Amino acid sequence: MQATAEQGAATAPGAPMLECRDLTRIYHEGPQDVTVLDGLELTVHAGERVAIVGSSGSGKTTLLNLLGGLDQPTRGEVRIAGESLLALGDAALGHFRNRHIGFVYQFHHLLAEFTALENAALPLIVRGQRKKVAEARARQLLERVGMAARADHKPGELSGGERQRVAIARALVTDPSLVLMDEPTGNLDQHTAASILALMDELARTSACAFVIVTHDPGLAAHQDRVMRLDEGRLSEQPRPTPVE
Ligand SMILES: Nc1ncnc2c1ncn2[C@@H]1O[C@H](COP(=O)(O)OP(=O)(O)OP(=O)(O)O)[C@@H](O)[C@H]1O
Predict the structure, then answer these.
(1) Could you tell me if 26 and 34 are in contact, meaning their C-beta atoms sit under 8 angstroms apart?
(2) What pTM was computed for the model?
(3) Which protein residues are within 6 Å of ligand 1, measured from CB?
(4) Which terminal residue of the chain, N or C, has fewer Cβ atoms less than 10 Å from its own Cβ?
(5) CATH class of 2-103+169-238
(6) Rounded to 5, what percent of the chain is helix, strand, coil?
(7) Where do the H-state alpha helices sit in 19-130?
(8) Which of 32, 55, 56, 60 to mutate to test the pocket of ligand 1 (most atoms within 8 A of CB)?
(9) Cα separation of 189 and 209, whole Å?
(10) φ, ψ at 50 (rounded to 5°)
(11) Burial zone of 187 (CB within 10 Å; 0-12 exposed, 13-18 middle, 19+ buried)
(12) ipTM (interface pTM)
């Protein structure tokens, strides 16, 4: 299985990078079963950016967790770069995640005792890269998100928006095939948010990275290639609101 997980991703623009088929998640905790996702279908191609919108409690976080292999569906499957997450064992799944998926979740999960630079370099260190090489790449990403000057600061010394930018650098440092983002620009001012969007555009174009972005921000949603609304456990394509300049 390990060998399968290490195979290269289907990175040609236009190839399906993410496929969800009949994706269903029923929570059995509590007095009543709760069906949150109900036969959801989604295909995202290499180089494509898809925004997911939906009301509070509609299942956006549940969906992101399934896409990232952090939770297992009750029924159906998630394929990333042609690989079914369900078919991977725990060790292979961890390896696959590190290799193919970048996460930017609302709680950034930065390690408190590490600097911004060390945090951003961590996925490469985990992958076995030499510290010097990993930190050189991490520094490039920190520059891109406007955090180079704070590279030696620990998360406790950074603002919420600054921590978010370090988390974005960390998610992108491995050149992932797929980036999963939960409100990635929520804490950022307009100028910083615009520079993050420009970085995402460039990555989608140059490295065929696919993005799935959960957001309540109509401006951010309008900036993506497609907007999907999650409602009653399924996704439907939305007309895009006019982008906010
Ligand atoms: N572990 C769990 N056990 C039982 N129900 C759960 C569990 N996790 C989530 N839910 C329920 O599933 C539904 C979807 O939750 P989820 O967090 O995915 O929604 P969301 O769209 O991300 O919401 P928000 O926009 O408020 O963050 C909610 O009704 C929630 O109460």
Answers:
(1) yes
(2) 0.88
(3) 27, 29-30, 34, 36, 54, 56-62
(4) C
(5) alpha beta
(6) 40, 25, 35
(7) 60-67, 90-100, 116-126
(8) 60
(9) 25
(10) -120, 125
(11) middle
(12) 0.97
